[in-house]
Amino acid sequence: MSAMSPGLVPQGGVLSVPPTFVNDDESIRSWLLTTDHKRVGVLFFVSTALMMALGGAFALVLRIEHLTPERTIVDALAYNRLFTMHGVVMVFLFMIPAIPGAFGNFLVPIMIGAKDVAFPRLNIASFYFYFVGAIVVLVAMQAGGLDTGWTFYTPYSVQSPSAVVPTLIGLFIVGWSSILTGLNFIVTIHTMRAKGLGWMRMPLFVWSIYGTSIIQVLATPVLGLAVALVAIDHGLDWGLFDPARGGDPVLFQHLFWFYSHPAVYIMILPAMGVVTEVVCTFCRKNPFSYRAIAYSSLGIAFVGFLTWGHHMFVAGLSVFDAGAFGILSMLVGIFSAIKVFTWVGTMYRGSIAFKTPLLYVFTFLFLFVFGGMTGIAVATTSLDVHWHDTYFVVAHFHFIMVGGTLTAYLAGLHYWFPKVTGRLYSERWGMLAAALVSAGFFVTFFPQFLLGNAGMPRRYYDYPPEYQTLHVISTVGSWVLASGMILTVTYLAWALKSGKRAGNNPWHSASYEWLTRSPPPPHNFDDTPAFVSDPYDYTETGRLSHE
Amino acid sequence: MSEGTAAHLEHFQDLERQAHAARLGIWVFLASELLLFAGLFALYGAYRVHYPEAFGWGVDHNVRVLGTLNTAILICSSYAVATSVHMLRKGRAKLAAGLLGFTLACGATFLVIKGFEYAAHFREGVFPGGHGAFFHGKPEGLKVFYTLYFLMTGLHGIHVIVGMGILAWLLSRILRGQLAVPHTHPLDIGAVYWHLIDVVWIFLWPIFYLTPGAL
Amino acid sequence: MKSISQRTTFLTLLALLGLTLGSFALSYVHLGRWSIPVALGIAALKATLVITIFMELAVEKLTVKLSLVAGFVFVFLLVGLMAADVATRAAAPLLPHPPS
After folding, report:
1. CA dihedral A434, A436, A442, A445 (to 10 degrees)
2. Best C3, C4, C6, C24 residue to mutate vs chain B (most B CBs within 10 Å)
């Protein structure tokens, strides 16, 4: 396999650039109508990154508002709309689609030695479902405003005179993207693996996408139903959850959380897949236990479905259900713990390279464990009675989603940047940004545990002055975090244009995506490799086969 | 591309792989459809536990014979489309097309019967959302019952219409010779979707027609 | 993929129609609390026949079979825990009936 970077190569006596998925037909039309999974991945990446920036902007405004009790820069109604938009955009338009849509689409077929996903046209269709749905959601929230919170609880969501119906229509459309993406990956992984590439030799990132896809296919329809019912109740006045007509609002919550709890595993499972890849490459070691990581991915997917009632402990759930869900919620921590111990066991005695991706992984490990343990804490019914709807819960899920998923996303972004773009970013800037992001994150969200424990409710516009100090610290942290993110965008954009050329395998990884060129050719491999070596084989013989 | 020849899509190794992927795909999709209806069945279950008498009354008030007739119609339609798949695989395209036509006729009949049922409800003043003169002075549970009835049979009806559309399109491809041995798996896919409609109705029928509660 | 014979398919049709008739007849019998489980049990049997024979799941690869089993497991989970919630709550009305 040639280790040449995609510089000029002699071809028939003339120097020319070998085709990559980027330069092979550069027309806009070819990008917009692409069936190349790599291009679909890039389309998802750009769109979800923009959504992340938008959601982040909303968050910054929210934090500025909280600098002082009472009004700082926005009024109460605008505040309600801001936290709703922040939640809707971040959850549905960034966290859910980002890693599977961007990284999953780009990498999974390459990692299993396939030319594309099983249904390439369905793939681009699922991007357009996402794109169109996102536009509908954004326009609706702008034009009419939405103040129900991203959780759309009835009866308020049915009564609120805001843009509930169009927003839910948009979300319904986005949901299709999720289902079709998951369907595509499941079929791809089952049917398109290269000859000789068995289930137990796939890169573990593929296992994490597989588990995620199962959740996407089985959970999203229930969300679709839940939001459709709210839209119907709102628009047609069918009152299915209206107590005056015999309806029960808690049943909406059941349907909503039946999706939205597994949804958080859609958000974290792919991130865990990224962590596994980065740990093995940058510690030059095979996983402490391949099967532990593989099976725990399935375990999380399954057990994640059993726990949704822990969001409803104070909603009026029966004592029986509350008890059942409390116990079941504890179980899911087991699989996350298995992964954490496996990663740490992998790093032990590894040959560690302190590059930006691994720095983000270190941050991930600390923040994810911290956040995960607070998850076990709030899963304890008797404790959650006090913490529910306070900043304690807000801090918990931001530790997991930002401290977990976002740092893993950044790790993956830096890890695979050379593969996708053929360029290297600057390690120095990468490390600085990682430090800013990590420190900024902690200063933003750790005080929120203290705030919540002291009784500060979530989604409240103002607060008693005793809480101000912690709020101010949190807001300053958000500025540090934002600066780290902006710095990241800046040096990566610069590297895209002017970074040093990366070879096929700048990290000397054993995983399969590094067997091909950077950027990859349109059909992924110039000649399909034999895949005889293990994707985590860092022994002498393994290394020689893919330097 | 698919002129009934052995041509297969480029990214698959061969037609058999493509057919297997397509079949796995529709089954995975079916699992998602199952969960969609499951949410509604869950609502029914929860509300029936809460309003046993009202739900029992509502079930009793539906016309049991019509519901049973519709069940039989869908079962026959399932048999027809399953046999159509077999016939197409054996190369008997004309028979396959005829059977598909029969399936479509069954679907249409089903919808017509449901249309009559809905019309009867509307005449009585039964509308979803507890709207309508019928509900004055009646227990609240009946409002929930009928809202769920219209939601669940309505969603099912939408699936019947979509299924008919898919089968009609497949029928047209067979008549144009585009679907023939060895490239017959698209009909398998459409048939599986149609059978889903039958399976969902198999469960809708008892909960809306056969179980008038403790008598 | 192996195939299912025409004969099996036809016999399944007869069985389904027979079960339908049987379920219809049973619905007129006073089964009390058992009417719902019986009706749903027969429905499950019919669904199994449609799925395994008409939809040919019986001769599909294991992966396909598993995807359906997974789906049903979660269906029971959702239905079960939602109904259990309502069934095990303290016996209080949802809200007082609004004054008419």
Report:
1. -110
2. C24
How far is Cα A384 from Cα A382, in angstroms, rounded to an integer? Answer: 6
Q: Which of B72, B102, B95 has the alpha carbon at shortest distance from B201?
A: B72
The C-alpha of C45 sits at a distance from chain B's nearest C-alpha, in angstroms, of 10
The secondary element (H helix, E strand) that includes residue A334 is helix A319-347
What is the phi/psi pair of residue A39, to 5°? -70, -40
Note whether B43 contacts A220, CB cutoff 8 Å.
no
A120 touches chain B (CB under 8 A): yes
Where along chain A do its domains lie? 29-544
Q: For residue B210, what is the DSSP state?
A: I
Show residues of chain C in contact with A118, CB under 8 Å.
none
SS3 of chain C: helix, strand, coil, percent, to 5: 75, 0, 25
CA atoms within 13 A on the CB side of A380: 8
Whole-model pTM?
0.94
CA distance C64 to chain A (A): 10
Given a contact cutoff of 8 angstroms between Cβ atoms, the answer to whether B180 and B187 are in contact is: no
* Cα B149 to Cα B117: distance, rounded to the nearest angstrom: 11
Q: What is the pLDDT of residues A301-353, one digit of tens each?
A: 999 999 999 999 999 888 888 989 999 999 989 999 999 999 999 999 999 99
Question: CA torsion angle for A25, A27, A33, A35 (degrees, to 10)?
Answer: 20
Q: Is A321 on the interface with C (CB under 8 A)?
A: yes
Stretches where chain B sits below pLDDT 70 are 1-7, 213-215
Which residues in chain A come in under a pLDDT of 50?
Answer: 1-6, 546-547
Q: Identify the CATH homologous superfamily for domain A29-544.
A: Cytochrome c oxidase-like, subunit I domain (1.20.210.10)
To test the contact with chain B by mutation, choose from A110, A121, A240, A266 the residue with the greatest count of B C-beta atoms within 10 A, namely A240
**Is residue A240 within 8 angstroms of chain B, CB to CB?**
yes
ipTM: 0.93
Q: Where are the domains of chain C?
A: 6-88
Using one digit for the tens of pLDDT, what is the confidence trace for A40-78? Answer: 999 999 999 999 999 999 999 999 999 999 899 999 999
Instruction: Say whether A246 and C94 touch across the interface (CB within 8 A).
Output: yes
Percentage, residues of chain A above pLDDT 90: 88
What pLDDT is stored for residue A78 in this prediction?
94
Q: Which of C9, C64, C82 sits opposite B45 (nearest CB)?
A: C82
Q: Do B129 and A254 touch (CB under 8 A)?
A: no
| pLDDT for position C94 | 57
Q: Do A452 and A395 meet the contact criterion of CB atoms below 8 Å apart? A: yes
The closest of A247, B204, B54, A312 to C81, measured between CA atoms, is A312
CB spacing of A247 vs B144 below 8 angstroms: yes
Q: Which residues of B touch A232 (CB under 8 A)?
A: 151
A11 φ, ψ (degrees, to nearest 5): -140, 110
**Over its length of 100 residues, how does chain C's per-residue pLDDT go in tens digits?**
678 899 999 999 999 999 999 999 999 998 888 889 999 999 999 999 999 999 999 888 887 888 888 889 999 999 999 999 998 887 655 566 666 5
Cα Rg of chain C, angstroms:
20
CA angle A241, A244, A247 (to 5 degrees): 25
- Which domains occur in chain B, in start order? 26-210 (1.20.120.80)
The half-sphere exposure of A128 on its side-chain side, counting CA atoms within 13 A, is 11
Q: What amino acid occupies position A291? A: R
Asked if the C-beta of A214 comes within 8 angstroms of chain C's C-beta atoms, the answer is yes
DSSP, residue by residue, A296-330: HHHHHHHHGGG-GGGG-TTTT--HHHHHHHHHHHH
C54 touches chain B (CB under 8 A): yes
DSSP conformational letter for A96 = H
pLDDT at B88: 95
